[in-house]
Design goal:
alpha/beta; Rossmann fold; 2 domains; four-stranded parallel β-sheet; 9 helices; 8 strands
Amino acid sequence: MLVINPNSSTAVTAAMNEACEPLRFAGGPAIECVTLEEGPPGIETQQHVDGVVAPLLRFVEAREARYGAFVVACFSDPGLHSVRELTKKPVLGIAECGILTALTLGQQFGVIAILRKSIPRHLRYIAALGVSDRLAAEVPLGLGVTELADANRTFGRLREAGEKLRDEHGADVVVMGCAGMAAYRKALQDALHIPVVEPTQAAVSMAMGRMRLGWHAG
C-alpha cells in the first residue's frame, strides 16, 4: 500500500514511516510511505487543504496500478473522496480512521491539534462524520507542523494538552491531530494512562484489513 504525506516535510514522512513499523510483518502487505513534494511544508489552513487536492490526484493516478491501497496521511483528509473516485481500491484518510478508531476505545474522544486555527476545520469535519456528540474537546499545541521535530518542546505540550483533555474535558481516549506527532504516541499514552490513537496507524491498519479480506469500493 502507498501512504502519502500530502505536505512536503520529509521529517513528517519519516515519523509516519516509523509509526508504521509495528504493522510490517513477513507475508503482510508492503507499506511504503512517500512525500508529495508539491505540497506545502505543513497543511495548516483550508487553502492548504484545497491546494493539494489536484497534485494529490495526479500523484495517485500515476501510481494507481502499482498499489493495492492508498492512505491519505493528513488529518484534514484532503482529496479523500476525489481519490476514491479514481480507484476502486481501498482509500483511507487518517482523520476519518483515527476518529472512528477512537470511538471503539472510549465514550468521549479528545483531539490534539497543532494550531488553534486548525480547530474550526477539524470541527467541520467531525460534524460531517456525524460524531460531534462524542467529541469531548480539541486542544491546540500552538506549534506548526515543521516545529514538531523539537522533541522536548513537542512532548511537553502534547502531555499538557492530553492532561487537559482528560482532566478538564472528560476525554477517555485521545486522537493525535497531525501525522507529524506520530513518534510521540506511545510515550504520550504511557503518560496519560488512557488510549492514544495515532491516526496513520489507524488508517494503515484498516487498509490492511480491507486488502486481506478483499473489501473494495462498489
